Give the backbone structure.
Amino acid sequence: MSFVPGLEPMFGGNQSALNVNAASAIVAQQTRLRRIIVVATTTGPATFNDAATTGAAAASNAILTIPIGATVGTVYNLDWPCFNGITLSAAGGGTFAVSFG
């Protein structure tokens, strides 16, 4: 599916990563982080970064830290440009569904 530039869906994106529950590179290219849904409650903080690899993730490129105890069904709507990619650098014991694009 493709969209006319500037007319993409505001939230939702056109790509997704499901069952993200460990530090990992979700996508390693320029994109937009659109939505994060908590699928399993966090037991520690979970941090999403603008980075292509988990090794490149740092406090200086953190986009969002999901707090301890974020409950199932919590939705974070974003429209954040990511120039390097999207990485979950610390899963915090939670599981997430992530949309981007």
Remarks:
- The mean pLDDT is 90.
- The beta strands are 15-20, 24-27, 31-40, 46-49, 62-66, 75-82, 86-90, 95-100.
- The CA atoms of residues 46 and 91 lie 5 Å apart.
